[in-house]
């Protein structure tokens, strides 16, 4: 599904309204893939079909701002990721562009101190990868070594996000 599939999934509109409200309150948010697209749309940015899908393991390159970011900076200059998307988003006005890839220049952003949108996946573990395997396009495989790298990056990045979020909440 995509952010524009509101007829089939009306909750997408409700979720965007909720995202707008919680970001305005300064509540920490982490949106991954569709979540990042929803967050971008909630913040007024465009979301559209990409020139071509990006699917499989790979990397994202951190921008200068990404290398300075408290959540992503320690991973500089690039980090392992899983890609599985056919849509892309514009960076919302006022947001900080954090990451890009060859196929998708807008891979990540931060809005305010703690609202993050990531087009790429860092949350993929063995169980999730196994559940995705039957759904992947023919010829696409999430390799063991690549998944290990993504899991290591994911644990570190998510740990730093929780740290930033907990400071915002206290």
Summary tags:
170 residues; alpha+beta; Rossmann fold; six-stranded mixed β-sheet; globular
Structure characterization notes:
The chain has helices spanning 11-24, 34-42, 64-68, 126-132, 144-169, and strands spanning 29-32, 47-62, 78-89, 96-100, 108-111, 115-118. It is an alpha+beta fold and 170 residues long. The radius of gyration is 15 Å and the shape is globular. The model has no long low-confidence stretch (mean pLDDT 95).
Characterize this entry briefly:
This protein has 170 residues and is an alpha+beta fold. The chain has five helices and six strands; from the N terminus they run αβαβαββββαα. It has one domain (11-169): Rossmann fold, CATH 3.40.50.880.
Reconstruct the topology from this structure.
Blueprint: H1 11-24, E1 29-32, H2 34-42, E2 47-62, H3 64-68, E3 78-89, E4 96-100, E5 108-111, E6 115-118, H4 126-132, H5 144-169
Helix pairs in contact: 1-2
Low-confidence stretches: none
CATH topology tier name? Rossmann fold
* Rg over CA atoms: 15 Å
Order of helices and strands: HEHEHEEEEHH
Quick check: average pLDDT?
95
CATH architecture tag: 3-Layer(aba) Sandwich
The general outline is: globular
| Tally of separate domains | 1
Give helix % range: 25-40%
Q: What is the CATH C-level name?
A: Alpha Beta
- Count every helix, treating DSSP H or I runs of 4 or more residues as helices: 5
């Amino acid at each position: 599904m995509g952010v524009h599939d509101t007829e089939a999934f009306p909750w997408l509109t409700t979720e965007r309204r909720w995202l707008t409200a919680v970001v305005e309150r300064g509540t920490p948010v982490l949106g991954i893939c569709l979540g990042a697209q929803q967050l971008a749309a909630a913040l007024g940015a465009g979301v559209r079909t990409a020139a071509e899908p990006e699917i499989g393991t790979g990397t994202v390159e951190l921008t200068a701002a990404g290398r300075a970011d408290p959540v992503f900076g320690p991973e500089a200059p690039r980090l392992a990721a899983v890609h599985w998307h056919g849509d892309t988003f514009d960076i919302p006005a006022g947001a900080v562009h954090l990451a890009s890839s060859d196929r998708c220049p807008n891979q990540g952003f931060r809005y305010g101190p703690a609202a993050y949108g990531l087009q790429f996946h860092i949350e993929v573990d063995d169980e999730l990868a196994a559940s995705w395997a039957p759904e992947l396009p023919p010829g696409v495989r999430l390799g063991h070594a690549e998944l290990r790298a993504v899991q290591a990056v994911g644990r570190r990045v998510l740990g730093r996000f929780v740290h930033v979020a907990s400071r915002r909440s206290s």
